[in-house]
Structures are given as structure tokens and as C-alpha cells.
Structures
1.
Amino acid sequence: MEVKDILKEIKSNLLGLVGGKFEDLKSESKKDVQDFLNASKVKLERWTLLLAAGHISPEEYKWLVESQKDLVILKGLYAAGVSKIKLGHLKNSILDSVINTAIGLVAKTTDTSTEDANA
């Protein structure tokens, strides 16, 4: 699977996550997710490529993604009155979703490649 496909899947999962939690604030949440992805795109691409190539472990990938927590700003949701506590939990959920999606897709791709090589 290509990195751009993994990033699309991450975006889709994040929009579903945030939209599901804040159904009435979809436009704000969509903009906040897009802002985070724009701010993190280059790093996420690089780290996902390193993960896929086996140059970093899933634990290292997780640590790197979690280092981006300050980029998850969620201005729109905050301005709409969502509490800081809820936003803090949402930031953690966003990072967990990015990590789990990327690691899951890379692992699935690696498993498929290994099976193809053994066939």
C-alpha cells in the first residue's frame, strides 16, 4: 500500500472519529483535522515510509506520532465551546487513530508481501 493511501485512510478515520463525537460541529472538526494533517503531513509520510521499510519499529513510530500532540490544536472545536478536557481526550484519540491505522495497514501490507514471496 502506498503512503498516500495510508494517509487517506488516516484522514478518513479521523474525520469519522471526530465527526462521530461532535456530530453537530462537523465543519469545525473537519477543518481541525485537516489543519493537523497539513501540519504533520511531511513527517507522517517520512515516518510511515520508515515504518514500512522496517527502519523503525512500531514503538518508535508511536513515539514519533505522539510527539506531534502539540500540532493537534482543535481551534474550531474550542471556539465552539468544547471543553479543554474533552479536547485533551480527543487529541489522544486522534493520535491513537493515526498510530493504529498506519501500523495496521503497514503490518497488513508486510504480511501480504511475505505471503506473496513464499508462494
Note: The mean pLDDT is 90.
2.
Amino acid sequence: PGGDRCRGYYDVMGQWDPPFNCNAGIYQYCCGTCGYRFCCQFKPRRLDQSGCSNYDTPNWVNTGQPPARVDETPEDPTRDKTNMIVYIICGVVAIMVLVGIFTKLGLEKAQGPQTE
């Protein structure tokens, strides 16, 4: 003879806990509460699962769709263009600085060592 079978149920957090068998050694009985079940060794502590009512999805879990997100400020397309212009200007300046540095290095190398 095997042990009890704890029926699947919805726990206190609304999560489904699947059914399981109590057949591991001396832990033969389904014990605990309707919202938290486990296997135990003492028959007097056995849970009367027929008295539990948490076998269907709780109503409070079905909250429906979340409300649509409302932005605090409306979308401003000119702001996006301003950011892009700043990025372009910074990129052009950086490229000009690099060109200047490499030009200076190239000219110094082409002139060779200076004699005084």
C-alpha cells in the first residue's frame, strides 16, 4: 500500500502547486494546511483535503489587463531632432580633431629631424 496523494492546489500566493505522492519512507500522509501541503509521518496530522476549496483559480488572481501607460509628457519630435543634431556636431568635431592630430604627426615625420 502506497502513501497519500496530495492534490494539486492554489497556494496563498495564487501559484498552482501540482499534485504529488507521499511515498518516501515514513512520510506517507498528506499534511499541512489547504494553502501549504507536505508529506508527514503522523496519521493524526493528516489533512482532510475534501474540506479545502483552493482547487480553482482564485478570483483575485484574475486582475485583467493592466491600465494603459500614460506618459507624463507628450512625445516631442523636435526634441529627438535636437539630440541628433548635438550628436552629429560632436562627431564632426571629434573627426576634425583626429584629422588635425594625424596631419601634424605626418608633417613632423615628413620633415625629418630638424637641424639647428
Note: The longest strand covers residues 29-33.
3.
Amino acid sequence: MTRDGSKARGPVLDNEILTIEEVAAYLRLTPQTIYKWAQEKRIPAAKLGKEWRFRRSIVDRWLDEQILSSESGFEHLKKEPTDLPPALRPGAKT
């Protein structure tokens, strides 16, 4: 226990099991979103009785996959800059 009476938390473990509320706080989303995604199998989760549980290491891996597969994150770097005047576009004759 800590001075304020709360339980002392040790180092975060890769196999730590999280609740919907904890995953929501971790990903900065609402618990309703995490619940919906778990039901739709959009996020890896296990239903134990009536409760959903998540393994932190798997959530981290899933998040990495979402970031890497996201077109919105880096796609703009691959496109030609069409908003430039023709004279300034790559390959323009000067």
C-alpha cells in the first residue's frame, strides 16, 4: 500500500490482463467503443463469463499493426504534391 491507501503498482507486465475500462483509458477511447470493438472482433479480447478481458502485450501488438497498416498516417508522403503550381512540381522543366 502507498501512503494514500491505494495499492502499490509494480512494473507493467507484458502479460498484464486489462478490463474494458483500463483498455479504454490506455488507448484514450471510451469504454463503449472498446466494448463495441470487442463484440465485433475488431480488437483482440477474450470474454470470460460476462466480462471482456485484454492482454496488454496483445493490445500493444494490435495497435502497432493498426498504425503500420493505416493509410492515413503516411500515405500523404508518397503522393505527388498536386497542390503546387506546375512549375514547382517534381520533373517540371525549368
Note: The first strand starts at residue 17 and ends at 18.
